[in-house]
Amino acid sequence: MEKNWYVIHTYSGYENKVKANLEKRVESMNMEDKIFRVIVPMEEELEVKDGKKKLVKKKVFPGYVMVEMIMTDDSWYVVRNTPGVTGFVGSGARPIPLLEHEVHMILGSDLSGVPELPKINLAVGQEVTVREGPFEGFSGRIEEIFQDRGKVRLTVSMFGRETPLEVDFGQVAEME
């Protein structure tokens, strides 16, 4: 038998409680050899409120929890009957494991240990205002987003000319 990742459906908002409950059940029912890791996929997002930048963790898939386990009747029973679990994701009587590339796509940094840069709620073509730095108060349109570097390139009007400007995510805010 080999271990695979499975997705379980939970009541929305109960993901962390299900994770804790399942981890306690695994320990109390001596299932450590069949159920290995329980993860609520999260990502960091840069949020600006009242002029302050803040990194917040948000659930990638609200209502879902991932479990790494060897699928047996016993391990299925332990997971399925954990309070807050409504079932496994998949059709038919037996849950279908995630494919390896799906696991890496969903968990990415959780498996590699390398943190990702925070996600942002900005889009190419969006109008933004520069909030801080030497260009504070300038408005412009986002031309390019560099997620890997945590920067955006925007075009601002300076002295009657369109000028490209590259700033950090946290230096811009959506136009209100």
TrEMBL record:
<dbReference type="GO" id="GO:0006354">
    <property type="term" value="P:DNA-templated transcription elongation"/>
</dbReference>
<dbReference type="InterPro" id="IPR014722">
    <property type="entry name" value="Rib_uL2_dom2"/>
</dbReference>
<dbReference type="GO" id="GO:0006353">
    <property type="term" value="P:DNA-templated transcription termination"/>
</dbReference>
<dbReference type="InterPro" id="IPR047050">
    <property type="entry name" value="NGN"/>
</dbReference>
<dbReference type="GO" id="GO:0005829">
    <property type="term" value="C:cytosol"/>
</dbReference>
<dbReference type="InterPro" id="IPR008991">
    <property type="entry name" value="Translation_prot_SH3-like_sf"/>
</dbReference>
<feature type="domain" description="NusG-like N-terminal">
    <location>
        <begin position="2"/>
        <end position="110"/>
    </location>
</feature>
<keyword id="KW-0804">Transcription</keyword>
<dbReference type="InterPro" id="IPR001062">
    <property type="entry name" value="Transcrpt_antiterm_NusG"/>
</dbReference>
<dbReference type="InterPro" id="IPR036735">
    <property type="entry name" value="NGN_dom_sf"/>
</dbReference>
<dbReference type="InterPro" id="IPR005824">
    <property type="entry name" value="KOW"/>
</dbReference>
<comment type="function">
    <text>Participates in transcription elongation, termination and antitermination.</text>
</comment>
<keyword id="KW-0889">Transcription antitermination</keyword>
<keyword id="KW-0806">Transcription termination</keyword>
<protein>
    <recommendedName>
        <fullName>Transcription termination/antitermination protein NusG</fullName>
    </recommendedName>
</protein>
<dbReference type="Pfam" id="PF02357">
    <property type="entry name" value="NusG"/>
</dbReference>
<dbReference type="InterPro" id="IPR043425">
    <property type="entry name" value="NusG-like"/>
</dbReference>
<dbReference type="InterPro" id="IPR006645">
    <property type="entry name" value="NGN-like_dom"/>
</dbReference>
<comment type="similarity">
    <text>Belongs to the NusG family.</text>
</comment>
<dbReference type="Pfam" id="PF00467">
    <property type="entry name" value="KOW"/>
</dbReference>
<feature type="domain" description="KOW">
    <location>
        <begin position="121"/>
        <end position="148"/>
    </location>
</feature>
<dbReference type="GO" id="GO:0032784">
    <property type="term" value="P:regulation of DNA-templated transcription elongation"/>
</dbReference>
<keyword id="KW-0805">Transcription regulation</keyword>
<dbReference type="GO" id="GO:0031564">
    <property type="term" value="P:transcription antitermination"/>
</dbReference>
